[in-house]
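Researcher: We're teaching a course module on how sequence relates to structure. For the next exercise, students receive a sequence and then see the predicted structure as tokens, so they can try to spot secondary structure elements on their own. Here is the exercise chain.
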Amino acid sequence: MPDILLTRDGAVATITLNRPEKLNSFTRAMHEQLRAALDSIEADRSVRALVLTGAGRGFCAGQDLADLSFEPGAMTDLGELIEQNFNPLVRRLHTLPIPVLASVSGIAAGAGANLALACDIVLAARSASFVQAFAKIGLVPDSGGSWLLPQRIGMARALGLALLADKLPAERAEQWGLIWKCVDDDALADETAQLARHLAAQPTKALGMIKKALRAAVNNDFDTQLDLERDMQRELGQSHDYAEGVNAFLQKRLPQFAGN
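Model: And here is the predicted structure for the students to work with:
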């Protein structure tokens, strides 16, 4: 079986990390397959929402250490590994012009936790947990973790999670604002499918710009952000879905968005 599964249900694409015997931990080959899956999604304009999930009893345990070299003088360059694989991946999820939903069950650890957090919306089963496991092996949170954690939950909690490398249960992750929602284990699949279908039926171009605007706001000053909002609104004001949304409102009917 391939390490990455790509399936379609209407306008919703699902990527499943598929190394369940290794808790879906990453190898270089897995990254290659994931890049190909994302290429396929980006080339298909009919895809209007993406779900990222893991097979088996975990979401992703991060990097597979068995795929690295620890031989003296030939140790894997982790900086190169990150630059070639993990950083492009989380950047790509941030900039995809469609909503990206992470559906997390079981463990999400190390880069696997931060891969989930790089998605736009995170749903997690009540039994799931998030672990910044890096300190346990003498490393720093990567794949965006050192940026995402303090942005979402504040410096005190971010430092506690990173320095102690403790498991954070999904229910507390929701309470802290780290993820969108924690649901009962047996409801996760249905909640994910329902939310993904909803997102896929919304004005996709606007959703893509919302992603871009909110992420830009972290670094922009107020005046720059106002200018960005103006420019985005000007472009969206000429779109099919804006006209459809207004007409549907005036005609008291449900809109039929086309995604453009």
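Model: If you want an answer key for the exercise: DSSP finds ten helices and ten strands in the chain. Residues 4-200 form a domain with the 2-enoyl-CoA Hydratase; Chain A, domain 1 fold (CATH 3.90.226.10).
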